[in-house]
Amino acid sequence: MPLADQDRTRWDTTLIAEGTRLVRDALTTTAIGPTNSKPRSPPCTPKERRYLEQRAREE
Q: Where along the chain is composition biased (Polar residues) (predicted)?
C-alpha cells in the first residue's frame, strides 16, 4: 500500500521508535562484536563435511 494511502493514526509508534533506534545503533556501531563477526550457522563438523563431500562426488 503506498505511503500516501496509509492511515498513519493506526501505526504503532512504539515499534517505529524501536526500529528507528535499532537501525541507528546498527549504522553507528563501528566495533565488530561476537554477534556480528561469526557466521549465522555453525560450521560443519568433520563428519558432516565428509558426508557432503561424498554426496558431491556421487552426483
A: 27-39
